[in-house]
Design a protein that fits this description.
Blueprint (H helix, E strand, L loop, with lengths): L9 E3 L8 E9 L7 E8 L2 H12 L3 H6 L10 E5 H10 L3 E2 L2
Antiparallel strand pairs: 1-2, 1-5, 2-3, 3-4
Length: about 100
């Protein structure tokens, strides 16, 4: 199965809703020695599921952690990744393109 990634796509998982994400930008890094590197910027789109996931993992909601000067590491709300990492995430969590 060939997966084409585009800005504006929303990928959702029935089993892991805290992993739902949207691709919101693409960054191209030109390199003289190597082909251009492409990174897809993503952000989670299911805030409630992510908050509950953080509560399970870290014992507190993200806003409580932030008040204490802590963060949700290693669980990011947004980021940038190469195509292969995005595809692996889509396959790992059996994600579907949202309409």
């Amino acid at each position: 199965m060939k997966i084409k990634l585009e800005v504006g796509q929303k990928w959702v998982s029935d089993t892991h809703p805290h992993e739902d994400f949207e691709i919101y930008d693409v960054i191209y890094y030109p390199d003289e020695d190597e082909p251009t590197e492409i990174y897809y910027c993503w952000k989670r789109i299911n805030g409630n599921a992510f908050d509950e996931f953080i509560k399970q993992r870290k014992g507190k909601y993200p806003n409580e952690l932030i008040k204490e000067g802590k963060n949700t590491y290693p669980y990011a709300w947004a980021g940038a990744a190469q195509r292969s990492n995005i595809i692996n995430k889509i396959k790992k969590y059996n994600m579907k393109l949202s309409e």
